Each structure stands twice: as C-alpha cells, then as structure tokens.
C-alpha cells in the first residue's frame, strides 16, 4: 500500500506539512506514549482484518453449502 494512497484524503500534503503534523503529535502525546498508541492501533487493525477474513470465509462456506446438490 503506497503512502500516497493512505494519505489520499489529505489532498496536496507536502513534506513540510507532514513534519508540522508529526511535531504536533509529538508535542501533544509525548515521545513515551507514541509507541504504545501505535501498538494499540496495529492490534486494532489486525483484529479488524481477522474479523473481516472470518466473515468472508463464512460467506464462502455458506455459498458452497447452498450450491451443493441436496440428497433426498
């Protein structure tokens, strides 16, 4: 996934603007809390991906079961 795609919603955000945003985050939260926040965000994203994959597999199994010929 390209960094440009991730920040596509921000429009024409250049390097200088990104540095200002990063400095603001650093000042607001402090250097000691940022790794913990990033770890929590990573865990949340991983759980979301796992849940969507599980739902996808359930739907695929359901479709396969519906397409199997039924024995009477």
Secondary structure elements and pairings:
Elements: H1 3-6, H2 15-29, H3 34-67
Summarize the structure.
The chain contains three helices and no strands. The chain has 72 residues and is an all-alpha fold. The longest helix is centred in the last third of the chain and has 34 residues, at 34-67.
Question: Care to describe what's here?
Answer:
The mean pLDDT is 84. It is built from 3 helices and no strands. The chain is mainly α.
Work out the number of β strands.
0
Q: Quickly give the structural class.
A: mainly alpha
Portion in strands: under 5%
Overall average pLDDT: 84
Backbone CA Rg = 21 Å
Distance between the termini: 50 Å
Work out the oligomeric state of the chains in this entry: single chain
SSE string, helices as H and strands as E: HHH
The major pleated sheet works out as: none
Number of alpha- plus pi-helical segments: 3
Helix content: over 70%
Low-confidence stretches: none
Given the C-alpha coordinates, what overall shape results? Answer: elongated
């Amino acid at each position: 996934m390209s960094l440009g795609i991730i920040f596509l919603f921000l429009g024409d955000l250049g390097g200088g603007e990104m540095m200002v945003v990063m400095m603001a985050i650093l000042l607001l939260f402090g250097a000691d809390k940022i790794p913990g926040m990033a770890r929590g965000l990573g865990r949340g994203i991983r759980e979301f991906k796992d849940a969507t994959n599980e739902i996808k597999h359930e739907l695929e199994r359901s479709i396969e079961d519906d397409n199997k010929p039924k024995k009477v």
